[in-house]
Amino acid sequence: MESPEKQQIRIINLSSTSFYLIKLIHSPSENDVYISNAVRLDLRLASNQQTKTESSINFEENILKSEYKTNLNKSNKRMMQPTNTVSSLVSSFLNKEKKTVQIPKVGTLLPIEEFFIEINGQDIHDFDDEYRIYFGLAWFNKIDGKGFVVRFDNKLKYSELEVRPSFFISLSTIGNSPYAKFSLENMNNLCDKYPKRVFILSETSPNVKDNKYINFWLDGLQYMDYRLE
């Protein structure tokens, strides 16, 4: 087991390459070690009621980049690393940006293209119980009085079981969300005959229920994203 000092040196040396290093966190910490060219993924639910459009997200990222450059010149102050949401990381993946992801809790480093797993008939035994973003085409289906089921188009396997995986979004989760993208009106509009490209960040691999279903657990709307095809 490496000492914290050795771990820090190993990470800093890695981050000196042309790749960005993304550190996934649940909340910013004053004890986080500054890593050059590092971006942390902030998984907190937004606390204000202002919603972010794609343009506002891009504006925020530009501000963070500017702050990052400014902080490089502040040698006597703790440097603050910019943070990304899951949605921002999805954009980076779709834009084929070169980034490296540090897996929470275990510290494993992965290229961004390995951090994203497309659902495509795999056996869930092959998945690691570590943070990954699973994605694929999926449909939104409303369950009156309860919420929405998101069911992927492609299947996953568990031994002899082969089904399309899904996850559930409760009405209370939607009601407590500050994101316009996940408002009840928008969620209802997603329930049409057209599939969406859906991304879900999961700490563990999907689980099997009653030997009939394969489900993901959604920790919050900040753990998912969708893009219209």
* Radius of gyration, whole Å: 19 Å
Instruction: Please tell me the overall pLDDT.
Output: 77
Number of helices: 6
**N-to-C SSE string, H for helix and E for strand:** HEEHEHEEHEEEEEEHHEEEE
Overall structural class, as computed from helix and strand content, comes to: alpha/beta
Number of strands: 15
What sort of overall outline do the alpha carbons produce when their principal axes are compared? Answer: globular
Helicity, in percent? 10-25%
Strand content: 25-35%
Distance between the termini: 45 Å
Low-confidence stretches: 1-20, 27-33, 48-57, 67-78
| Biggest β-sheet description | 6 strands, mixed
Word description of this protein:
This protein is of the alpha/beta class. The chain is 24% helix and 31% strand. The chain contains six helices and 15 strands. The strands form four sheets. Strands 6, 7, 8, 11, 12 and 15 form a six-stranded mixed β-sheet that branches. Strands 3-2-1-4-5 form a five-stranded mixed β-sheet. Strands 9-10 form a two-stranded antiparallel sheet. The N terminus is likely disordered.
